[in-house]
């Protein structure tokens, strides 16, 4: 709570900063030490900012009285969700170093508030937020739902602090998002991956299973998609892997950009191939593909059984890419070949291609660091 004593004690810094006094009123502290009152409010649907004088010439009490009078005379309209998001982003985006992250934040907040963004902040109910999250869950975008809800909760906490709202309608809504943990899909954290790969390298293995494991980390594809890959699916000159529809879980053709590191591995494998069939062959029957269990056995032999799986690389990819704030959720989801049912008819295997190429190159650099 801002008080006169606290205001008197405010020290200047190299940059201007503000402290809220509630209800849109704040005090700006300049590098020169000057302190000015500022009121932000919405009138006739437009966001306005008005200076109310300097402190101590205008006391805290006087500033509050002036603010009340101005808002009363302006025919104050309640701040909407859209205006709140704009205000929150404008304030906090100054701390973000990436424009891509800012875009992602705005995208997620716009997406989750689609049905109530024009409503007054104070009128948004938990049921409305729950409905929005439920729609995202129904589409299978669990991570997007989780991260969008987390952002919206931060926005409403800001609203409470500035007395735009009394409650946070996001509270407890996360309980309707499934944990989406599936048996045999355990994954390690990014911080554990260097140790994981150091241990893998020290573990005695036979055949190409460790190479398949390495590519699974680089490419973030489903284990079956990798183990049953054939050489005719790859264009090593263009650096792309086209997985045919019949091998995809979605039954839709999928394109995978090949960054320099996995491309080098594949070219080495191609140079030593015995035929143009499976990239990874069964150890006793070259006419068959390597079983997924052979790759998983490498993990178990290294002592990570129950803690990591081949499918876990996909979860790790999603987590690291989303947490970085550098990539749009739609781009990450498309690279993972997660497709919403209602857009299957317009699915394009190369959608967001340039962004996906950049994403997989960025990811490959991270994986290369772990595997070094």
Automatic annotation (TrEMBL):
Location of the Tyr recombinase domain: 183-360
Which Gene Ontology biological process is one annotated for this entry? DNA recombination
Keywords assigned? DNA integration, DNA recombination, DNA-binding
- The reply on keyword GTP-binding is no
The entry sums up its family as follows: Belongs to the 'phage' integrase family.
Which Pfam family, giving just one, matches this sequence? Phage_int_M
Q: Sorted alphabetically, which SUPFAM superfamilies does this protein's record hold?
A: DNA breaking-rejoining enzymes (SSF56349)
Species the sequence originates in: Moraxella equi
**Cross-referenced InterPro entries:** CB, DNA_brk_join_enz, Integrase-like_cat_sf, Integrase_catalytic, Integrase_DNA-bd_sf, Integrase_DNA_bind_dom, Integrase_recombinase_N, Phage_int_M
GO MF terms, alphabetically ordered:
DNA binding
Q: State the protein's name.
A: Integrase
Question: Which CDD domains does the annotation name?
Answer: INT_P4_C
Known PROSITE patterns for this protein? CB, TYR_RECOMBINASE
Q: What region holds the Core-binding (CB) domain?
A: 79-160
Entry annotated with the keyword DNA-binding? yes
């Amino acid at each position: 709570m801002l008080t006169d004593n606290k205001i008197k004690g405010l020290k200047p810094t190299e940059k201007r900063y503000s402290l809220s006094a509630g209800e849109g009123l704040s005090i700006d502290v300049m590098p020169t030490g000057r302190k000015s009152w500022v009121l932000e409010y919405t009138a006739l649907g437009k966001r306005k900012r008005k200076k109310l004088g300097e402190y101590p010439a205008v006391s805290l009490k006087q500033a509050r009285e002036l603010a009340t009078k101005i808002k009363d005379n302006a025919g104050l309209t309640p701040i909407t969700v859209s205006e709140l998001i704009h205000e929150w982003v404008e304030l906090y985006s100054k701390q973000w170093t990436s424009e891509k992250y800012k875009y992602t934040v705005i995208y997620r907040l716009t997406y989750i508030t689609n049905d109530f963004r024009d409503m007054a902040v104070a009128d948004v109910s938990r049921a409305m937020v729950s409905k929005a999250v439920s729609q995202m869950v129904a589409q299978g975008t669990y991570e997007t739902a989780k991260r969008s809800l987390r952002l919206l909760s931060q926005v409403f906490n800001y609203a409470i602090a500035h007395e735009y709202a009394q409650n946070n309608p996001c509270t407890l809504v996360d309980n309707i998002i499934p944990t989406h943990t599936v048996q045999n899909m355990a994954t390690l954290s990014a911080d554990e991956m260097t140790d994981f790969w150091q241990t893998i390298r020290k573990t005695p293995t036979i055949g190409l299973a460790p190479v398949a494991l390495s590519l699974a980390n680089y490419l973030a594809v489903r284990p079956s998609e990798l183990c049953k890959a054939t050489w005719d699916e790859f264009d090593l000159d263009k650096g792309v892997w086209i997985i045919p529809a019949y091998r995809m879980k979605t039954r839709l053709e999928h394109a995978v950009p090949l960054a320099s590191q996995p491309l080098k591995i594949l070219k080495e494998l191609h140079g030593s191939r015995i035929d143009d069939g499976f990239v990874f062959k069964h150890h006793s029957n070259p006419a068959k593909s390597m079983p997924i269990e052979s790759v998983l056995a490498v993990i178990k032999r290294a002592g990570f059984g129950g803690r990591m799986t081949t499918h876990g690389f996909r979860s790790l990819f999603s987590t690291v890419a989303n947490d970085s704030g550098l990539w749009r959720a739609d781009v990450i989801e498309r690279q993972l070949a997660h497709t919403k049912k209602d857009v299957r008819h317009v699915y394009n295997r190369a959608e967001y291609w340039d962004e996906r190429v950049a994403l997989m190159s960025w990811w490959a650099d991270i994986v290369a660091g772990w595997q070094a």
